[in-house]
Amino acid sequence: MDKVSLALIGAGSRSRAYTSQLVGNDNAELVSVVEPDKDRRELIRTTFNIKPDMAFSNEDDFFNSTKCADAVLICTMDREHHRQAIKAIKKGYDVLLEKPVSLKASDCIDILDCANKYDAKVMVCHVLRYAPFFQKIKQILNEGKLGKVISIQHNENINIFHYSHSYVRGNWRKTSEASPIILAKSCHDFDIINWLVNDKCKSVSSFGGLSYFKRENAPANSTGRCFNCPERNSCIFNAEKIYLEGYWWNKGAVNLTDQSDAGIRSALKEGPYGRCVFKCDNDVCDHQVSILEFENGVTASFSMSAFTNPCSRTIKVMCEKGEIRGNMAEIEIQLFGSEPEKIKMAEIVDDIEKHGGGDYYLLNDFIGWLQDKDAFARTTLSQSIDSHLMAFAAEKSRIEHRVISMQDLL
Ligand SMILES: NC(=O)c1ccc[n+]([C@@H]2O[C@H](COP(=O)([O-])OP(=O)(O)OC[C@H]3O[C@@H](n4cnc5c(N)ncnc54)[C@H](O)[C@@H]3O)[C@@H](O)[C@H]2O)c1
């Protein structure tokens, strides 16, 4: 196959990670867009010179019309994924599917069965597998000089402003509207742990909750919105400070089509991102710790926390003959009884921004996989689904206060 044709479903913030790479791309072109929001749809349509009749305001019109591309990029919110992936596969499309695959374990399996039945290629956007940092760790383990992996300690350091943006004010704040954070955010981390352990998870135990972003912690005289709050000058979560003075980069989620100061201010006045972080309708955990046991005897502990300065991952992989310690910027490898060897990521890759460059490599692999069925693809649906099942098990364990055996999950 020469140039691959793609259709975008859902032209929100996340889609930008992929569409930005399609401008002037010699291997792929965007030929259709499905997006209910007129401004977002038009922005994509005009950027890619998409024919007006190939820009759809609703998915039914798209799926009821003739198949128009080789693959779809599903970048809608979590609750739309299962329905849209099934429709796309049945229509003959290959699929790049944003994570989480779906909100229920049975729906994840349903998509996998459907993909197998229709022989569709489905890749999940587990971009961390493509991040040079984790690729390097995997390569070091594969080289074998550290021996077998015995145990892993992994931390997801969300960063307090990222957390307040996405999980207090934003799209993923409520389990009933999105999913538990251990699925929405940490399926990436379970996927990485799985990949490094290279075996199936056997049992999961998990603890956590929402401790801080609650009404009882609101400053005494605070109001429901920052713009008229008497406490705003002393509050670090003042939305104007965060979005206009640049604490947090994602202005696009606040106002995707007008990121001028006036556009952001007016969106903060009316929209979700201007609300008091202590007075939102959020319920997802702000910290959660999980313990994992794998079939091959490897154990892992994983801690997800909102209460961090860096927005990063830190990992320690403890092996028979030495250990690896890493923090996205640097990897330290130390054989027991030897001096550590340091690898600075900035010295081996140009772009370590945005999931460590993972978005770029993932899309490239997807396009390559479409062009050549034997091409290497790292996050196929069948490889990705275990991480989701582990997240469902962790949430069940947290709620039911018991160890969950993976074989009893489904
Ligand atoms: N892989 C990653 O690292 C990563 C990072 C962030 C977000 N995500 C995932 O990306 C997905 C999208 O997140 P986002 O921040 O872009 O959300 P968003 O709300 O900004 O974008 C979703 C878009 O889908 C549109 N939409 C709604 N219903 C639709 C329908 N039926 N058909 C077509 N379009 C429809 C909305 O109007 C919106 O523009 C989520 O599932 C999220 O979990 C993944």
UniProtKB/TrEMBL annotation:
InterPro entries, per the entry: Gfo/Idh/MocA-like_OxRdtase_C, Gfo/Idh/MocA-like_OxRdtase_N, Gfo/Idh/MocA_Oxidoreductases, NAD(P)-bd_dom_sf
SUPFAM superfamilies named in the record: Glyceraldehyde-3-phosphate dehydrogenase-like, C-terminal domain, NAD(P)-binding Rossmann-fold domains
Signal sequence region: none
Domain Gfo/Idh/MocA-like oxidoreductase C-terminal: 138-402
Pfam families with a match to the protein in the record: GFO_IDH_MocA, GFO_IDH_MocA_C
Occurrences of domain Gfo/Idh/MocA-like oxidoreductase N-terminal (ranges): 6-125
GO molecular function: nucleotide binding
PANTHER family (UniProt xref): BILIVERDIN REDUCTASE A (PTHR43377), BINDING ROSSMANN FOLD OXIDOREDUCTASE, PUTATIVE (AFU_ORTHOLOGUE AFUA_4G00560)-RELATED (PTHR43377:SF2)
Protein name according to UniProt: Gfo/Idh/MocA family oxidoreductase
Species, as recorded: Candidatus Afipia apatlaquensis
